[in-house]
Amino acid sequence: MPELPEVETVARQLKPEILNKVIKKAIIHDTKLIRLNVDKIENTKIADVYRLGKWIVIDLVNTENGKKQFLCVHLRMTGRLLVKEFDHANMKHLRVEFQLDEGQFYFQDVRRFGVIELLDSLDSVQPKGIDPLSCELDSKRLHNMMAGTRQNIKTWLLRQDKLVGLGNIYASEILYAAKVNPQKQAGDISYNEAKSIFTHTRNILKKSIKNCGTTFSDFQNAKGETGEYQKYLKVYKREGENCRVCGTTILRIVQQQRSTFYCPNCQK
DNA sequence: CTTTCAGCCTGGGCGC
DNA sequence: TGCGCCCAGGCTGAAA
User: Fold this and answer.
1) How far apart are CA A196 and CA A177, in angstroms?
2) What is the distance between the alpha carbons of residues A24 and A102, in angstroms, rounded to a whole number?
3) What is the pLDDT of residue A86?
4) Are A168 and A158 in contact (CB under 8 A)?
5) Is the distance between the Cβ of A29 and the closest atom of strand B smaller than 7 Å?
6) Are residues A121 and A144 in the same domain?
């Protein structure tokens, strides 16, 4: 599922392919995407491409009047932003195509959870939480943020108003690496545990970005390729298999309507 | 204020 | 072969 490393991968790959090109036309194939105002996007030059939380932001400048706009894309579950050439006949679930002065890019989404909209301001997509890769975050701040909350730590890690960018895969992987039981209350996390969670969050996200993210079934990067980080997953989707450290059977539990995978021996 | 939870959406996999 | 059912999960908005 697109979490921080997958979104970062798409933004990084997309940028050199479309930077400084001009959007000539957008064709919407899915009427659910009414928030995208097609007329206003014509003749806008792509000034930048980057990640903001789990959003991909494309800065646009109108070539006629200089007006700035932001094309914001949230992949949610199955969304893809693709720049590769397409055989249109085989292009299932194509939602929007953007025709450039040179080439094109596409938004494809099987399950239609994805969001794509043209905004005058970034206010509505500005993350409330802190980016885990930001230099503003450290162990002490993370520990302070958890103080007083009764939610379990796994659910807390998914809160985008606290940390931006973690999803179900990395939350399980981080807690396994940090040897913290996912059912523990966030408010009961010790400083040393918070420190371990902080360190492993950074390391896991960075390693996943290096490997172009995780692909379980749907994720593809901007060039239509899968990620590689699934090779390194220790607990996610490994229910019933053995822990690679101690051999104990990996468990699956449900927290907040979401699967959590963990080793009951390593994570006490 | 905090925390919980149904619903959105589709395709794949399973049991019968 | 096909039908019904369950599962995957990021996020919103309403309820508790």
Assistant:
1) 8
2) 9
3) 75
4) yes
5) no
6) no
Residue A173 designated active-site: no
Total length of chain A = 268
Inter-residue contact A71 to A100 (CB < 8 Å): no
CA of A49 to C1' of C7 (A): 34
Residue at A60: amino acid letter: L
Residue A19: give the domain boundaries.
Answer: 4-125
Q: Where residue A98 sits, what CATH number does that domain have? A: 3.20.190.10
Calculate the angstrom distance between C1' of C16 and CA of A94.
40
Choice among A51, A54, A234, A238 that is catalytic: A54
A214 touches strand C (CB under 7 A): no
State, as a whole number of angstroms, the distance between the CA of A64 and the C1' of B10: 41
**What pLDDT, on the 0 to 100 scale, is given for residue A37?**
81
* Nearest nucleotide over every DNA/RNA strand to the A167 CA, judged by C1': C10
Residue lying closest to nucleotide B6, CA to C1': A257
Instruction: Please count the structural domains in chain A.
Output: 2
Identify whether the C-beta of residue A253 lies closer than 8 Å to the C-beta of residue A183.
yes
Measured from the CB, is A230 under 7 Å from any atom of strand B?
Answer: no
Same domain, A112 and A158: no
Query: In this predicted model, what pLDDT tens digit does every residue of A102-161 receive, in sequence order?
Result: 999 999 999 999 999 999 999 999 999 999 999 999 999 999 999 999 999 999 999 999
On whether both A20 and A111 belong to a single domain, the answer is: yes
Which amino acid appears at position A29 of this protein? H
Determine, yes or no, domain membership for A245: no
CATH number at residue A177: 1.10.8.50
> Residue A20 — left, alpha, or beta (φ > 0 → left; ψ -120 to 50 → alpha)?
left
Structure tokens, A19: 């930077």
Average pLDDT of chain A?
93
Please report whether residue A262 resides in a domain. Answer: no
